[in-house]
Design goal:
Distance between the termini: 47 Å
Shape: globular
Number of strands: 0
Oligomer: single chain
Length: 448
């Protein structure tokens, strides 16, 4: 199913890649319109998101609202852990300078994700006897490490295929994942509808796409034959990924997914279901273009940086193209949201329509900026953006989400309004900061 995009998609010290060997290997080519280049990925992803959309519509027909709420909490936790268990090592794959290095980085990403997920599972099992009655309410927690590992492997493969510029295969993978999830969701919804059934369908969808990715990428078990020397080189070369980018990813993912978890704790599974349905309903289609463009933008921007070329024109052009598509969608979605939920899901989901109008501006703002956020890592400003995200997290989550509930026990609608408004402000300031750093970079290359 769709999810909010992660603001940092690549991490490393790019200076290590400005080697003469890599520069020679790059072939000059004419710049292509990013919409045209990303269209193969978009076309397959669009169908996949359509399947995800259908799954959302069908959930209330087979599952209880409480089960759907538990599912959204599990999904939020899984997405949070899935991008972290490999310590963001999958980000090194896209910026590999040779196929051999890319294969090695893919194998290391798998190994790190596997080891961390295993440790997480052991910790859960070790502490489970002390949970008491609470354990019966969160039996799904035992599946979290498995889902996190599969998510990490899936992301690693996407970065590998992106490195190969096999955009259409990335789209096919999304379609397979969505279709498998839909089929299992419907089958189990008929036979044994429960929160665990939804979780099993989610994991099965990931497993299906991983099998496809293994086949389409042509990799073999030899990617795990990694010498101590390669490990040492990896940890030295990509140390920023394992430190600053991992830290930034934690804060970024908490900003995105912690509200879902907090809503469950504060107001219960029903409210989470209403919020999760609204968020998935509108972020699912709008993320198609932004994710597709992000894949192309990231690869092109890395090459421009290595060649010491200007980025500002490409950056502004990309943002304008995203706005041209996403803003009209946002306006229509805002106007039709209550009618959509009343018509297709019924009066019992009326609250989702109101929540949608609150969070749609945040979804739009995030997906306008998201495709270009890779630039902070390319320009090697992870430390600066980490401070930005820490301040944002403190204000948005601590001061304006947790404290208002604890001090005033206010209605969740007001919490979401503050969360959405501050989120839009966050991305406006983020965009301005990004423009400033691009200008600094181009000033530097002009004086070389």
């Amino acid at each position: 199913m769709g999810n909010l995009a992660i603001p940092v998609s690549i991490g490393c010290n790019i200076r290590a890649f400005k080697s003469a060997h890599f520069s020679i290997c790059l072939v000059k080519k004419k710049d292509k319109n990013i919409l045209i280049t990303s269209f193969p990925l978009f076309s397959a992803s669009f169908i996949a998101q359509g399947v995800n959309f259908l799954t959302l519509l069908l959930l209330p027909l087979f599952y209880l609202t409480e089960d759907i709420g538990v599912f959204f909490v599990f999904s939020a936790l899984g997405l949070l852990l899935g991008s972290l268990v490999s310590w963001r090592s999958f980000n090194a794959i896209l910026i590999s300078d040779t196929d051999e290095v890319a294969n090695s980085n893919l194998g290391i990403s798998f190994l790190l994700g596997g080891v961390t997920s295993l440790i997480l599972e052991i910790l859960i099992l070790a502490f489970s006897p002390f949970w008491g009655n609470w354990q019966s309410n969160v039996e799904w927690i035992y599946f979290l490490p498995v889902y996190a590992l599969f998510t990490s492997v899936f992301i690693s493969f996407e970065n590998f295929l992106n490195y190969k510029k096999r955009y259409i295969q990335i789209g096919y993978g999304k379609l397979i994942k969505a279709s498998a999830t839909l089929l299992i969701t419907l089958l189990l919804g008929i036979l044994t509808p429960s929160a665990e059934s939804l979780i099993f369908a989610l994991i099965t969808g990931l497993l299906a796409v991983i099998v496809f990715q293994i086949w389409i990428s042509g990799i073999t078990w030899h990617i795990f034959q990694i010498s101590k020397r390669k490990f040492k080189i990896f940890f030295f070369k990509y140390r920023d990924i394992l430190t600053f980018n991992s830290s930034l990813a934690i804060i970024s993912e908490l900003n995105s997914h912690l509200p879902t978890i907090l809503l469950s704790i504060f107001y219960g599974e029903n409210v989470v279901a209403f919020y999760g349905m609204a968020q998935r309903f509108f972020s699912t289609p709008v993320s198609v273009w932004s994710n597709s463009i992000a894949s192309v933008f990231g690869k092109e921007s890395v090459e421009r940086y290595i060649k010491s070329r200007n980025i500002s024109g490409y950056f502004v052009s990309t943002v304008k193209k995203v706005i041209m598509i996403i803003i009209p969608f946002g306006v229509i979605a805002f106007l039709l949201a209550p009618w959509i939920f009343d018509t297709f899901l019924g009066k019992e989901w009326e609250a989702s329509g109101g929540i949608s109008r609150i969070i749609i501006p945040l979804i739009i703002a995030q997906n306008i900026v998201m495709p270009t956020t890779i630039l902070y890592t390319i320009l090697n400003h992870q430390k600066r953006i980490l401070i930005f995200y820490l301040v944002s997290f403190f204000v948005r989550i601590i001061l304006l989400f947790i404290l208002p509930y604890l001090l005033f026990d206010i209605n969740y609608i007001y919490l979401l309004m503050m969360f959405s408004f501050t989120g839009v402000l966050h991305y406006i300031l983020y965009y301005r900061e990004l423009r400033s750093q691009i200008e600094n970079y181009e000033t530097q290359i002009e004086h070389k």
